């Protein structure tokens, strides 16, 4: 995604565990900078691993500089489909939502990773 505003954007992430027990999650917001070609993220704005208790919602926020690209990642232990993620841009924490910068759970791309034996 890109912060196409001329001010810092707050990326707001809502994560919900609908499962009946805690699930380990890793939440990341990666800063891909503002270069036309970028081979790696230039920094990590959020990188938290924690157990999200059953039937719990939690929130993370990341400040995205103007004109920078960013990526939101959610890694869920055991590929649990009962953990939902929605993210949207705000003008500030608690501020108004920015049109066009909302991604709901079904719009995220799911990637299954193979682990080494």
Structure in a nutshell:
This protein has 117 residues and is mainly β. It has strands spanning 9-17, 23-33, 43-52, 56-64, 69-76, 83-90, 97-103.
Write the layout of secondary structure elements.
Layout: E1 9-17, E2 23-33, E3 43-52, E4 56-64, E5 69-76, E6 83-90, E7 97-103
Antiparallel strand pairs: 1-4, 1-6, 2-3, 2-5, 6-7
Structure description:
This protein is mainly β and 117 residues long. The chain is 0% helix and 53% strand. The protein has no helices and seven strands. It has strands at 9-17, 23-33, 43-52, 56-64, 69-76, 83-90, 97-103. The strands form two sheets. The chain has a four-stranded antiparallel sheet, with no helix packed on it. It has a three-stranded antiparallel sheet with strand order 3-2-5, with no helix packed on it. Strand 6 (83-90) and strand 7 form a beta hairpin. The protein starts with 8 loop residues before the first strand and ends in a 14-residue tail after the last strand. The mean pLDDT is 88.
């Amino acid at each position: 995604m890109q912060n196409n505003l001329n001010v810092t954007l707050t990326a707001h992430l809502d994560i919900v565990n609908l499962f009946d027990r805690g699930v380990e999650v890793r939440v990341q917001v990666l800063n891909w900078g503002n270069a036309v070609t970028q081979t790696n993220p230039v920094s990590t704005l959020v990188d938290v691993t924690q157990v999200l208790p059953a039937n719990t919602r939690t929130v993370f926020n990341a400040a995205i500089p103007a004109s920078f690209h960013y990526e939101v990642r959610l890694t869920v232990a055991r590929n649990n489909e009962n953990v939902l993620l929605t993210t949207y841009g705000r003008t500030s924490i608690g501020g108004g939502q920015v049109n066009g910068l909302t991604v709901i759970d079904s719009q995220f791309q799911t990637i299954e990773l193979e682990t080494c034996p």
